[in-house]
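Try this one yourself first.
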């Protein structure tokens, strides 16, 4: 029997227009452009401004563009998965709102919370639905309004994050392209190093949690850095070894964009030169679910059918993973 794979057949992203520069941050907290660039590689990030706008609005912009670009009717979409840690509200899922805002009526939808690895967890879930024959046209969205959970008086975190959304269309193919293999891992013992303390069932919102600034990202940067460098490099090297891929076989590495030093370490470990690594952290910062789509979108016209691409991520949870994609168009 011919194997059915899932292929990525389109991509579109949205970043809100307001740009928060390192210079502006210098006026908000005790930091400097020099420190931010040398420690992270980030120069600016997009921020969603304006009342009444949430993650689903950015996601909907990305999906509308994707449907138009791929000439796809919203009626034909049968599943929508949104990877996010900043849904518009605790429930319903952001994916439900995105479907509603884009006229997708024949799909079921749900959110996936795997922090910075969420988009890849969503891609592989969509892949399984397609491979099983259960779904034919799936939209995977990675969207985060990180500014909604960022404390702009905390210099350790406020320099890192930005807002954006990316949407991918996945469809079945019998060609030898698409999502070829993946490796994933999670380790809940990593939670103390990166989490949001309140707003969940453990510590519901109260005056106390607000006063203690517990509705913002909490991160022990150095500890997360150590895990991220090791895990992202390990898992990327592992997927190459498992599939007998050499550095010459790999056209592109698409790493989660959290810190340029983590990206460089991963590329070194894979033996991949820097010009084969998609890097746009300098202009977007860490947009959590949207980093990988933002890269693929900006590099889309350079990609060729059959290109071997390795996606790699590490995030809160801890969560990590790598996906081997053969580009399909
Ligand atoms: O995407 C999800 C996963 N997250 C990650 O992968 C993030 C991983 N971590 C990191 O990327 C890095 O740890 C950070 C960028 C967050 C921090 O960089 P670092 O090189 O680990 O800095 P550090 O936390 O060790 O801080 C070094 C110094 C400290 O001062 P002292 O104690 O040496 O006097 C900090 O207080 O830099 C200080 N510092 C700052 N200085 C200027 C921390 N933040 C800033 C800042 N501006 N924004």
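Now uncover the answer:
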């Amino acid at each position: 029997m011919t194997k059915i794979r899932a292929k990525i057949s389109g991509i579109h992203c949205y970043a809100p227009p307001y740009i928060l520069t390192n210079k502006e941050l210098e006026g908000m907290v005790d930091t400097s452009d020099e420190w931010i660039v040398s420690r992270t590689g980030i120069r600016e990030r997009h921020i969603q401004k304006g009342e009444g706008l949430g993650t689903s609005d950015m996601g909907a912009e990305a999906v509308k563009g994707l449907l138009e670009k791929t000439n796809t009717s919203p009626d034909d979409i049968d599943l929508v998965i949104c990877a996010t840690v900043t849904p518009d509200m605790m429930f319903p899922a952001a994916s439900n709102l995105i479907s509603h805002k884009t006229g997708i009526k024949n799909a079921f939808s749900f959110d996936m919370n795997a922090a910075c690895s969420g988009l890849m967890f969503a891609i592989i879930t969509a892949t399984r639905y397609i491979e099983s024959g259960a779904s034919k046209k799936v939209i995977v969205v990675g969207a985060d309004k990180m500014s909604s959970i960022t404390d702009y008086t905390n210099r350790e975190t406020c320099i890192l994050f930005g807002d954006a959304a990316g949407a991918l269309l996945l469809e079945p193919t019998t060609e030898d392209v698409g999502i070829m293999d993946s490796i994933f891992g999670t380790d809940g013992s990593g939670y103390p190093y990166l989490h949001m303390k309140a707003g969940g069932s453990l510590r519901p919102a109260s005056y106390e949690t607000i006063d203690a600034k517990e509705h913002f990202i909490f991160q022990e940067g150095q500890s997360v850095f150590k895990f991220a460098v090791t895990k992202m490099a390990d898992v990327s090297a592992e997927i190459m070894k498992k599939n007998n891929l050499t550095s010459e076989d790999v056209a592109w590495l698409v790493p989660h964009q959290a810190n340029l030093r983590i990206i460089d370490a991963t590329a070194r470990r894979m033996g991949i030169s820097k010009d084969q690594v998609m890097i746009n952290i300098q202009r977007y910062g860490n947009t959590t679910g949207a980093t990988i789509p933002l890269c693929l979108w900006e590099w889309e016209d350079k990609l060729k059918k059959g290109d071997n691409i390795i996606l790699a991520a590490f995030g809160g949870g801890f969560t990590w993973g790598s996906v081997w994609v053969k580009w399909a168009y």
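Discussion: The chain has a mean pLDDT of 97. Residues 31, 35-36, 39-40, 116, 155-156, 159, 221-222, 224-225, 228, 258-259, 262, 286, 314-316 surround oxa(dethia)-CoA (CB under 6 Å).
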